[in-house]
Amino acid sequence: MSKFRTLDDLGDITGKVALVRVDLNLPMKDGSATDVTRVEAVKPTILELTDRGAKVLLLAHYGRPKGQRHSTMSTSFVQGDVEKVLHKEIMFIPEVMGPVVEQSIGILGNGDIGLLDNVRFWPGEETNDPEFVKGIAAHGDFYVNDAFSAAHRAHASTEGLAHHLPAYAGRAMEAELKALDAALGNPEQPVAAVVGGAKVSTKLDVLENLVGKVQHLIIGGGMANTFLAAKGVDVGKSLCEHDLTDTASRIMDEADHAGCTVHLPYDVVVAKEFAANPSSLRTCNVHEVANDELILDVGPLATEALGDVLKTCRTLVWNGPLGAFEIEPFDAATVALAKTAAALTQDGSLTSVAGGGDTVAALAHAGVKEDFTFVSTAGGAFLEWMEGKDLPGVAALTA
């Protein structure tokens, strides 16, 4: 893994201005956030910088205003929620550069925090315009990126600033990069990957990358049906991308050559309709799915066998549920395997890293989110990392 600078590399920062990129794109309802996980994640970085006497200016986006000011997308909407988590007052600054920012810095005392407005109000943010970057950089003494979830974007506040100011990874970014390195960069083998989700088409690059890096590839969700169909299994009226069966076959061939075992369910939970506890619910062998049935979860025998696979592994990367976990009882396989992975992690025999929105929700539903080694809150960035792509926001910190 390339070396990147962290807050440990900072000297005396009393009175210095820290431009800190954070993710404050919070889900809101009736004027307040319904989930402040992202603020909790950046809290250690912000408080460490204020404790050390820096003036902290928070840079963040909120929604997709497409380069124009929108009264409903100002970061001022999340100011109250951020203050609650930090237990500190914050000054809202309705610009990102220029005289208003300069005056505000003059008013802020050492250890104070300012929240700049939505960086995406300016078209220069998403185009990474050099003049826009210079304009923001003029106010800071150093730059800290603590927004891994936006690291796959080469924007002004996520990538450009790192080339104009001394750049450091914040504590959340540091933890994320170390965990990802332990999972796929330089992992203890054998490595297992669980890849679930509805469609193969959205995870093609992930699968292509993983077959060369892991020893066990566990495929679940609707994706598994496409792989089963590629093996000649009649999946009834299950969600299946029949036009991608050739691709699925190729991935299985590549896995074979790379010494990677692909695990597909051999017993499945089916029903005639996707509803909670339907009367048509049954468990059967994959070769016994009727024409009018839907495969909605991995069966108990296959789930137990997958648990046995994890017991032989040292590292696990997880992205996507095994079944339609939002509705009971189709959450059973995801919950059971997540509990096995959590127990092995707690025993110290498995390093488990998970990420992606659905995955975080599934692990929380299983009650094991806190028991994994690391759970990434990033969606797109985590997926692109699993695809083996360089993330611009990370690359800029190591340049």
Spatially, the strands of the biggest sheet line up as 5-6-4-1-7-8
The second-level CATH architecture of the largest domain is 3-Layer(aba) Sandwich
What's the alpha carbon Rg, rounded to whole Å?
Answer: 23 Å
Number of helices: 14
Characterize the main sheet: 6 strands, parallel
Count of beta strands: 17
Structural class: alpha/beta
Give me the CATH superfamily of the largest domain.
Phosphoglycerate kinase, N-terminal domain
The span between the termini is: 12 Å
Q: Kindly report the CATH topology of the largest domain.
A: Rossmann fold
Q: Total domains, how many? A: 2
Mean pLDDT: 95
Give an account of the 3D structure.
The protein folds into two domains: 7-172, Phosphoglycerate kinase, N-terminal domain (Rossmann fold), CATH 3.40.50.1260; 187-386, Rossmann fold (3-Layer(aba) Sandwich), CATH 3.40.50.1260. The chain contains 14 helices and 17 strands. The strands form four sheets. The chain has a six-stranded parallel beta sheet with strand order 5-6-4-1-7-8, with helices on both faces. The chain has a six-stranded parallel beta sheet with strand order 11-10-9-15-16-17, with helices on both faces. The radius of gyration is 23 Å and the shape is elongated. It starts with 16 loop residues before the first strand and ends with a helix. Helices cover 36% and strands 17% of the residues.
